[in-house]
Specification:
The structure holds 2 protein chains of 2 kinds. By secondary structure, chain A is α+β, with helices and mostly antiparallel strands. Chain A contains 4 helices and 10 strands. The N and C termini of chain A lie far apart (143 Å). The radius of gyration of chain A is 46 Å and the shape is rod-shaped. By secondary structure, chain B is mostly helical. Helix content of chain B is 78%, strand content 0%. In chain B, α7 crosses α9. Classes of the chains: A alpha+beta, B mainly alpha. At the A-B interface, α1 and α2 of A face α1, α2, α6, α7 and α9 of B.
Chain lengths: 207, 180
Amino acid sequence: MADDKLRREFNAAFGSDDDLDVDRMLARVRGAAAQRSRRRRWFTAVAPLAAAALSIAVLLLVRVALPDNSAPKTLLATPTPSVSPALQTLHVGQWYRHVVNDVTTPSGVVHVGGVWVIRLSSTTRGVIEIHSSPEFNSGALRYDAGRDTWVVTALTRYCGGKSGTYDIEERGTALILTHVDDPCTVRAATLDNNVFLPLTDPSQLMG
Amino acid sequence: MSVASVSATANLELRGRQRVAEAEAAADYDAFFRTEYGQVVRVVQGVLGDRARAEEVAQEAFVRLLVRWDKVATYERPDAWVRRVAVRLAVRVSRRDRMRTVLERRVEPPVEKQSSSEVFRLLDRLPRAQRVAIVLHYLEDRPVSDIAAVLGCAEVTARVHLHRARRRLEELLSWQVTDG
């Protein structure tokens, strides 16, 4: 009974379908469906092209953004040591000096006379040859960026294996070593503030 | 008769058959629309409580049906399919309405629902599933199996929704509503 009453209430509340213009609604639904189908067809046709274009754009962006692995790499991890102005003016080459004076030490006179030759194989490295006595052999020159000086190991045997530090400067075509710190007085006396001339001819080594 | 002319004739016949099939499908859809549209509007109105919005939702459901008509027409119950879509859309619309901020509600002038009878006020107090179940049962005389199909749940669940909806209405109306 109450069930029927509720059913009647429902039907009364919801009204009838007579006021619905079904034909107009059907036309509207058909129009919307046709538009949606057209849009779907268009999307189906365009989507692959859009996806391809997007992929190409992404690839180009990635290529531009990332460094080219095939290009030669510049090592930036280790900082370039600061180069002193004197070092920058140095050239690869060879210089000589005829040492004529002996050096007097508390333990006696040391004969260092002969031809001393400096050969720089680079702007930071070289050798120093002593063409006098086979006792002295040859030594080395090495630029120490940390101390901004040249480390000289000539006369090592005589100097007890100790090295000295010097500034090396090119003045015109000549090379001049200036003593910074050297525990070996014989080497300091021979090298400090002495002029080495450019070696251009083997005859310059004679004498 | 050459092979080319035979092929052209076969193509023409095929196109002719396709056109006939399309016309038949369109006629079927039109007939289905005329039968079901009003009922679907009423079901959605039961969920939303608003006739105008119910028509919009029903139209959207029928647009979706038309786009897929070739497939849905082969189903056993296309009517259940369109109701199910319509109810889901209605639930979504109802949920969206509820999610609107208080500010939006304040800015918009209060809209008086077209169908503001006692029945709709009662339905508004029922959970959505119960509302759908009771509308399908009382308005369309649908059996529990149909209600389950529209709600997308088991028949037992649909029966529970219907039972609880009746009990709730009984409380609200102080009537004696019997399970039918």
